[in-house]
Structure formats: C-alpha cells, structure tokens
User: Fold this.
Amino acid sequence: MFIVSVVNFIKKYSLITLVIALLAGLPATGYAQLCAGSLGDPVVKLDFGAGSAVHAGTLPVGTTSYTYSANDFPNDGSYTIENTTAGSGNVWWSTKDHTGDVGGYMMVVNASTSKTDYFYKTTVKGLCSGTTFEFAAWAANLIRTTDVSPPDLTFTILKTDGVSVLASIHTGSIPVTPGGLVWKQYGTQFTIPVGESDVIVQITNNSPGGIPGNDLVLDDITFRPCGPTVSSNFVVGNSGSSALNACTNNIQTYTLNSTVVNNVYVNPSYQWQVNDGSGWANISGATTTTYSFSQPTVVGTYQYRMVTAEAANIGSASCQVSSNVSTLTVAPSPIANFTIINNNSNCLLNAVDFKDTSIPTSVRISNWNWNFGDGQTSFSPNPSHTFATNGDFNITLTVTNTVGCTSSKTIPIHINAKLAADFDVTTPSCTSVPVTLTDHSSTAEGTIAQWLWTFGDGSPQVTQTSNTPFTHAYVKEGTFDISLEVISAGGCVSDIVKKTVTITGAPVADFILPETCSTDATTAFLNTTTVNGSITGLTYQWDFGDASAGPGNLNTSTLRSPRHAYSHQGTYTATLKVKAPNGCVSNPVVKTFTVNGSITKSEFIISNLANLCAGTPVEIVNTSTVNFGAFTRITLFYDYDNDQTNSETYYKDPPLKTDKQIPADNKYYHTYPAFNSPASKNYHVVMALTAGQTCTAAPNDNVNIKALPIVSLSAPASICQEADPVQITENRNGFLGSAVFSGTGVSSAGIFNPAVAGPGTFKLDYLFTSQTGCTYADSVKITVYPTPTVTMAATTTMLEGTQINITPKVTGDGLTYKWSPTIGISDPAKLSPVFSPTVDTKYILTITTDKGCSASAETNILVLKTPLVPNTFTPNNDGINDTWNIKYLDTYPTAVVEVFNRYGAKVFSSNNYAIPWDGKFNGAVLPFGVYYYVIDTKSGRKQMTGSLTIIK
Assistant:
C-alpha cells in the first residue's frame, strides 16, 4: 500500500518534474546498463497522461528552475507538456509521443543558455528495500539539422543523505538525426540498500542551450524491479509452448513450468498469477515453479505468469519480478450441421449436393472433413458426390475451427436404383401411316412417373404420365431418332434411349383433268403420280363418276392413265387412289370436271383498235360461247403470219402452277414491241378455242399499231445560280407534234432559269405528242450550284505609312480569292491580305467556288496622310498666309486642335478643324510671339505638339 501511495503521489503532483529529473542521467546509447534479468511491473510509470488539448498544465512550483510555456515552441530555459510538436515550425521535427498514442502527452524542453549544477532534484519514496531496480526513459533530439549544442545529460540516483551515489549515467551528446526524429531508450539499474526505501533523483544538463541547440523531448519513464531471469511455458510433451488453444467441449489439464536462472534472492518465494482481462490476480496455492490446472470452461483469453521475490517481499508488487506471459485461448467449439440439397432425387450415378450449415460460433471454421459412408471423402465446404451403388449410407461431416476445436454431424441417406428406359416402334413407316410407340421401361424400386418422348422431327417434346401405347405421324420423309427418358416418382432419371425410324414418302396421287366435249369418243385421264420420282410397283384405283357407265364402258379402272367414254355432256367427279409397294396408300384425289357441249359462237373483238400506239397494251375480248360448260384451253397467236411462237395459252384448270388461268372477264392483254419507224405496222391475231378434242374453233382479226415518236433532249448537267437562263434543246427526229416542259425553274417552252430554281438538283419533265396521238416522255436533270457570298466594309481608313488587314465575310465551298488592283497588297490570292497603299484606293475582291461560281465586293481604303503643320503664319489681312492652314488635317473629321500662350492659357480650340485659325482670341488679334499647339487626330496617330509663331 505504501508503494502504491508513492506512485499515486508522483502521478498526481510531480509527474513532469520527475521526467525532467530522470532525463539528465540517461545514457548516450540505450540498453547497455538496463536490467539483464527479468523485470517486474513498473512501480513508477510516467507517461505524462493524455488529453484533447495540445498543451497540458504546469509542473508544481519549486521542483524546477525552468519556466512553463504554453507555446508550441518555448523559449530557451522553458518547457511545455504537449501531444504534438506539429506547430513548432521548421526548426524542430514534428512528432507525437513515444508510443504514438492519440492525444498522448510528452515533455518538450528548450534548455537554458547557462549550465547549472542540476535543473531538477526530487525524492522518490516507497521503493522496495534491498531490491535492484531498472530506471529507463525515452528521449530524442528535436533539432532537424544544425545543433550548436546537442543535449548532453547526466542523471544521478543518490541516497537520501544527498551525498552517497547509488548510480550515475552520462548520455554523452545526443546527436541530430537528419532523416527524422528517432526515439532512443536510456537507463541504468541500482539497488536500494537494506533498510531504506527512498532515493533522490538528480538531473544535470552538461551543455548550455543556444540557437539552435539543446532542444529535446522525452516520454515513458519507469522504475521497475529487476531480478533473476525467469521464464515459463506450458509443458507440451518434451518441449514447451508459450501459447496454447483449448476448446469448450474438450476439457483438459495443462501444466505450467517456470525456470529461474541466476537467482539473486537468498530466500526466494514464488507465486503464479492469472489475468482473464481484469488484471493480474494471485492463484491460491500456486507457489511452486510448477502449476497444473484444469482449463477454464468460459470462452476467453487467459494469461499466466510466475512472479518471484525474497520471501519477505513476495506480497509487494514493487518487489516482484515476473516471467514471460503464457497464453491459453479457450475457444467455443463449432456446431456441425449440413443439408442435402437434392434429397428428393438421390439417384444412382446422379450427383448429390451437400451444403454446410455449421455454426462457427466466435471462431472461424477452417477445415471440413466429409465421409460419405461408401469409402469416399471430401474436404470441400460444399461438396458434390456421386454414389456408385444404390442403398443406405451415413453421411458424416466433421468441422474444425482455426484453434483446432471440432464437431461432427451424421445424416443418413438412401440412394435409389437406376431406371432402364426401353420401347418399340412399329413398321411400315410412311408419311401417310402414323408409327405406334410401345413403352417397355422398368425400375428395380419405386414407380415410373413420367415418360419424355422426343421424335427427332422438330416437333415439341411430349411428356406422358402413363405407358399406354400411342402414335406419332411424320409429315416428311427421312431418318429420325426417337428418344425416351423416364423419371421415377422420386425424381430419378434414366439414361436416354434412342431408336431410329425411317419414314418413306406415301404416294401423292394426282392427275390432269381431261379436255373433253360431248362429241369426243373417249376422255383421257393423265396420271402424274410418282413416289420418289418412280412409278415402279404402284397400283391404281380409278372411279370416273359416270352413273351411265355399264358393261363395256366400266366406271372404274386400274390402269395408270385410262380412258372413259362419257355419253352425255355434264359435270362429273373423278377419284384416284394409289398404293405403294410398301403398303402405304395415298389420300384419294377427287376432281370435278365438265364434259362440254359444242361451240355455238366463235369470235373476239379488239376494244381499242382505233388508237393503238406501239407500247400500248392491246385489249382482246373473247365473245365466243359453248352450249354447255366452258372452254378448257385458249391460245392467242399475236403475229400468226410471221411468228407463231409469239403466243400465250390459258387453261380453265391449269395443269401446272406456272400455267395461266382463263380470265373470268374474258379479257386478254398484249403489248407489241415499241418502234419508231415505219409510221405503222399490221399484225394478224388468231384465237384458238378448245372445249374438247373435237370441239375447236379459230377466229382471227388484224391489228394496226402506230409508231412511237422519239425526241433527243440536250441540257447542261450543271450551272451556277448567278448564270443567265439557258434553253433546253430538242431533236424531234422528223416527228410532227407539240411539246411541253414542266418542273422547278423551267418554262413550258424549255427555258431554265437557275436564279429562280435556286441551289439543288432538279428533274425537268418533257412530254411530246405527235400528230398521230402517240406520245413520248423524257426528263433531264440539272444541278444548280449556289453562288458564294462576300461582304465587307464599304470604306476603311488607315494612317499613311501603316498597314491594315481587311477580313471579308464569305460563304461557299472550295473558295479561291482574287483582289484587284494588286498594288499595295501582300498577297492578292489571300482572303485577308495585308494592305499598305500610299494613296486612296478602291479594291475589288472576287471569290470563286470549286464549281466555278463567283461573286464580288469592293471597299475604298482612305489613306490618312500626316498633317503638315506650319510653324508660322501672318494674320495681317494682306491676303498672304493670313490663317494657320494645316495640310491634310481636313481628312481627320474628329481632330481636336488646341493652342496655348506661353503662360499655359488656351487661346484657341477646335473639334473639327474645318475653318483654319485666323490668330484671334475672343475676336481680338493676338499679339505676335510664340504659341504652343497640341493636335489630336483621334485616329490612333500620336498627338502632334510644337511651337507656332504669329508674325505681324
């Protein structure tokens, strides 16, 4: 209690004083005289405290001859307590306290310029009698570069008689550290005589202060018991460890062993201590160098050490020295757990996914060990495993945290047997006969819930919930893979089984309807049916739809292309079925046709015969009739006498998609090739009519076609907007008639005005009508290029002997420039040349675009000549030199002229020297003599000054 009181007293009243005192005795190099054995806890620890203010308070009066300062940079002979030297300027290093604590205080000293015997002296009380102590402190030189008198300190520890020295340390010169401030620890050890517990600490400064010199900082000063070397460790086999981990679910016994080397105590005593975060506490009964204990059950970090001292002093903390610290960390064990993600589909050879859901408590899990019960393991946190056999398995997860604590969890799992998919497909297989699919799939356990069918023809997959046979129709020929995959009620999926089916084409029956009439002996049916382009092996079944048929003229036939005699005109229906060698049967083809009557009228008319020009469609109208039915085929020959290939055939029932249908309105159109010569051409038109094999006719007529006129036009491809109007010329090639032009910027007579049209490309249309009524149309394109623009000031003035630039405003593409005349221009081909004419000159700028379009503008440059100022004139009314005539000043309309007498009085002024001065002031003639003038032309020219003499 006495030692504690001393410590509290020092902290409260003389912390700073003691720091200064101890500084004087620190050695120049640290550690040489520090404790060689083990240390106890500090009996006195001076770290100057901490605070948010930069400076702390003063030291008690009478403990030091130095003056307290609250300045960041105290003067010589002063000190301060602060948490940073950042505000001290660029002479000292900027630093925090020795440990770098936020707000931690340190002592800053600017030594006195005069050396004293000592600058601090105080008594430290309550130390342990007969015990060796280590005294230590941290110090540093604050100077950045040049130090005229570095710190050089001696600290002395004396008995209370003030004479007997227990220890003395001389630091030597503490040098400047140019790379930055460097903290160093200095110290010594001393023994308190038996029967005594107080000492005097005295600090002496061996060198004076200066500018700059002897500026220092110190921090963290301690008195600590010093004794033999004491070490301790946990016993681990044949070795030891200073740090072990323990787990809350695995209580163990641990043994600590301590070794004491060079024991200086006559009657040593030992005590084990534990620190659970609340401070060091003695362990009851643990008073030997070996200590065994059962681990704590509460999670936390536990520190252990052994302290030793003379038996009489073992109860005093100020007398004890301690071993190193051994640490036991008691960690919580993890809680192992996991889930099986796809537990509803645990199937043979399918991957089963496991997810770790273990709770790590407060320590991170670092290892996962999975045992799948089939001899396989994994160390992944979330593994996936495939079982090679079905059955029941126990899955065990063991997790280990970073301190070695483990936990396990076991969950059983059942792996289902694999399904076997199988099926049959029927034959024959053709596009007209659907295939039948029959399932034969099986499973060793459970039931099949779904059948997934894929047919390989692009049709959607079919999912069935039973294995009832079903059919599938293929609409095209080819080889297709049919696939089956089955799924059990538990979600297990079989392998996909595939079988190939070849689909052949079923016959597609078809025939061409006959052309027949009532006078034909028989009607022929043309069969067009094939299978893959072949008719081999095909069989046929015809039904002619003739209710009047009988023996010798049957209503049916098995021939490929049979004939049948219809005895009456009328409408009939014929049916054809075809069977292929593989048994595939076509769909029946049913077609209705007419047995026509005879032709009752044979003629056609040309509706626009009176006005036919080459290139104009000829309209031919069929007015022929039959007494029953209709025409089955009509062929038109447009130039029967000269070219019978110039024809077209139309059908009532076109046999091919490319064949033409007889129009419902009986109108046919044909355009003859255009021609310009001769004036007209004649064509012989024949219409071949067919209603049956024996029912035909061929009416005919002549057509006269007029020639088309042809005209050649000539016009410029491009023109400038500023150009004169141009005439579009035409060559009518001898045709007589009238013509008209139309379009932007063109008159009906073909005069094109670019100024009216404006810039752009214009299509001009032309229409010529010949005397025969035939027309010719054409067009021409003319591009109008825009006229450039140029503007500039109409008049510009300049001083004689100077130069000016004129920059016109222009628009246009690819411009070139030409100034005229070229005299007094730096570059007449430049937009903005330098002008230096000597006389008034009119300049013209012509600009031209890359298309050849041009425009011009002009400007007058007026050259202002230097006024010629006479220095005398004679205002005597003799008609000679009566006024002060200043040549060229009239070209400066804003000029200001002022005249002063010898006394500085203004006798004449003018803001526009339009009337020369007559030498009068206020109407009176001025006396002869010398006057002074100032002329400001207000044109940028320098003011003109000089003397003027009036002569009588």
